[in-house]
């Protein structure tokens, strides 16, 4: 039996080793198209080990989904990114339950869920619609525009501001700061300068907002979090701040990238997206297939809390384990012809895109709502569109997948 963790490659009829399988999440060539590597990982090394960088990885749908549920043996408490810098520099500023284990995680998640309710999210639909139209109309009128800077890069952070109750005049500045918080250089967050400074400015702003709301409540999420209570237990200001920061880090860029990936893959599959441009009521099929085919949150990490055996190999306690979400979503064992972008699949309940188990994305409903509304408004105004193949710019990151710039040319109705 071949060594399932082998990074050495495949053997052909006992001949010399050829085409070694190397998985390096920092590699720019890998970012261009990670899917051939994911396929090889699933087929040749379902438990992969890269001792040089220092991680293990699970790539099959069944393994990734099981791992999400295995939150006692696979810990989130040392961060959920391969790159320790991704959350490390901000860790002293915030207490985020994304990177905690139960029972600490569950206490905070439950308290936050008292304020961040499905009903509050659904009630945002009208504002999301207004904002989408406000960004889309001037952009579409110009015929050619950058989808990221005009629409996709604005909507998610403005929706987060709307939720929290940030006054209108401050929102553009908060968007600028949030972009700097996740700014990347060579696939690594630009930690020392802009990122940390922007985090501090953003946190100071939110801190003042919490103090104001403590004195005088409104009907926003910030006020609801101050009032959230379970059996006398309440969130501290620091914990509310942690959640606000988590929304900015986990909910902003991922949704921007989802909107970008939808336009990119629709543009590359005109026959598929035509079904939605002809019938915008089918927009959710476009969103769901994009979430499967090229999801914006590709990789999350865990740390093994104990020795765990996968595919006959024991991974010792204390090791970094990557869960390859992007690969799970392309597993032919779960999705027929998984490498085909096919609008109209019924795959929602099988997607790995929002994680699983106790850390399942708290904002999945909001992300879907935003994408459905914005893309439906786009589809109902656009007859055809194409992506400018020379102008797009991919973000290089070990976990986030999508575009920093995506110029498109549209034919409106
Ligand atoms: C967790 C993906 C949008 C808030 C997660 C996780 C994934 C994910 C994979 C699990 C992480 C883990 O298990 O370590 C995405 C994607 C999004 C998106 C692909 C957009 C397309 C949002 C939005 C918000 C949000 C809009 C809120 C405004 C959260 C929170 C958690 C989380 C709070 C932590 C949950 C916990 O630890 O219990 N997200 N997310 N996400 N997400 Fe999202």
Automatic annotation (TrEMBL):
Gene3D superfamilies the UniProt entry points to: Cytochrome P450
Keyword match Iron: yes
Pfam families: p450
Keywords: Heme, Iron, Metal-binding, Monooxygenase, Oxidoreductase
Family annotation (CDD domains): CYP130-like
Cofactors named for this entry: heme
Protein family (similarity comment): Belongs to the cytochrome P450 family.
Protein name: Cytochrome P450
Protein source organism: Rhodococcus gannanensis
């Amino acid at each position: 039996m071949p060594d399932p963790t082998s990074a050495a490659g495949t053997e052909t009829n006992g001949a010399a080793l050829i085409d070694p399988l190397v998985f390096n999440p920092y590699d720019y060539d890998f970012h261009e198209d990670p899917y051939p590597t994911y396929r090889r990982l699933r087929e040749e090394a379902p438990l992969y080990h890269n001792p040089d960088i220092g991680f293990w990885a699970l790539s099959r749908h069944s393994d990734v989904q099981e791992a999400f549920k295995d939150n006692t043996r696979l810990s989130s408490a040392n961060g959920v990114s391969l790159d320790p810098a991704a959350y490390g520099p901000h860790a002293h500023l915030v207490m985020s339950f994304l990177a905690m284990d139960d029972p600490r995680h569950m206490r905070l998640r439950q308290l936050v869920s008292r304020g961040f309710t499905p009903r509050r999210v659904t009630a945002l639909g009208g504002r999301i619609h207004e904002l989408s139209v406000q960004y889309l109309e001037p952009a579409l009128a110009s015929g050619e525009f950058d989808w990221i800077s005009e629409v996709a890069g604005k909507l998610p952070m403005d929706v987060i501001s709307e939720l929290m109750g940030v006054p209108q005049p401050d929102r553009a500045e908060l968007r600028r700061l949030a972009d700097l918080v996740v700014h990347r250089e060579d696939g690594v967050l630009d930690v020392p300068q802009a990122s940390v400074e922007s985090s501090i400015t953003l946190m100071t702003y939110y801190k003042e907002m919490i103090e104001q709301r403590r004195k005088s409540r409104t009907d926003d999420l910030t006020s609801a979090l101050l009032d959230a209570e379970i059996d006398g237990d309440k969130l501290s200001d620091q914990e509310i701040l942690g959640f606000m920061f988590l929304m900015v880090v986990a909910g902003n860029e991922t949704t921007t990238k989802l909107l970008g990936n939808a336009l990119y893959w629709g543009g590359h599959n005109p026959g598929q997206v035509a079904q939605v441009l002809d019938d915008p009521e089918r927009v959710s099929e476009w969103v769901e297939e994009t979430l499967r085919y090229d999801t914006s949150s590709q990789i999350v990490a865990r740390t093994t809390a104990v020795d765990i055996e996968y595919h006959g190999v024991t991974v010792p306690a204390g090791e970094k384990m990557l869960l390859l979400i992007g690969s799970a979503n392309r597993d032919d064992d779960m999705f027929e012809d998984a490498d085909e972008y096919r609008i109209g699949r019924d795959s929602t309940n099988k997607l790995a895109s929002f994680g699983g188990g106790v850390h399942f994305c708290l904002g999945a409903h909001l992300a879907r709502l935003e994408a459905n509304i914005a893309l439906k408004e786009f589809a109902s105004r656009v007859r055809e569109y194409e992506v400018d193949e020379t102008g797009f710019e991919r973000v290089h990151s070990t976990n986030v997948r999508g575009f920093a710039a995506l110029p498109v040319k549209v034919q409106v109705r």
